[in-house]
Amino acid sequence: MDGQPAPGPVLSAAPPRTPALLAGLGLGGFIDGILLHQVLQWHHLLTDTGDHPADTVAGLEANTLADGFFHLATWVLVVAAMVLTVRAWQQGRLAPPWRAHWGMLLIGWGVFNLVEGLIDHQLLGIHHVRDDLGAPLAWDLAFLALGAALIAAGSALLRSGERLAARHRGSGAPVAAR
């Protein structure tokens, strides 16, 4: 109350990575759930269990419920990413360069594909990318390959963005717009 402005947060040199990673996981799940489950209708969460076929009303109801819980989980990841982003902002941690941010988003999406593809498609066998085909293994392998490619591309973008940030950190030039 002495007329002096309150000190602002101390700026950190390291932008947060976790928010973009969580957003990538959640958005990757949304892409899977919305595109593959709903738009293309290639599979639902439980279509290959044998107990919940998508060609019966009861099976479709069970799959729709499971898909809903899946979408809820991906939504929670996106909300957690938003909360962490705002908290980092309140702590004075600046946003990463766009390249680094997009890199972490792609890494998150790729991790989603690898984890979901290995666990649900291969280990548990509860569904495959194309449950409507007789031999879905090639589609499952392509889904895993896409996950690996997303991680590789995301890692390259992340490294490029971090190198850019390191070059400009001392110069005072804004790097978030790059």
Note the main attributes of this structure.
single chain, 178 residues, mainly alpha, 4 helices, 65% helix, 0% strand
Strand content: under 5%
| Outline type | elongated
Q: In total, how many domains does the architecture comprise?
A: 1
Percentage of residues assigned to helices: 55-70%
The total strand number stands at: 0
Spell out the blueprint of helices and strands:
Blueprint lengths: L17 H22 L17 H34 L7 H26 L13 H33 L9
How would you characterize the overall build of this protein?
With 178 residues, the protein is mainly alpha-helical. The chain has one domain. The chain is built from four helices and no strands. Helix 1 (18-39) packs across helix 3 (98-123) and helix 3 runs antiparallel to helix 4 (137-169). The protein starts with 17 loop residues before the first helix and ends in a 9-residue tail after the last helix.
Would you summarize the structure shown here?
The chain is mainly α and 178 residues long. Helix content is 65%, strand content 0%.
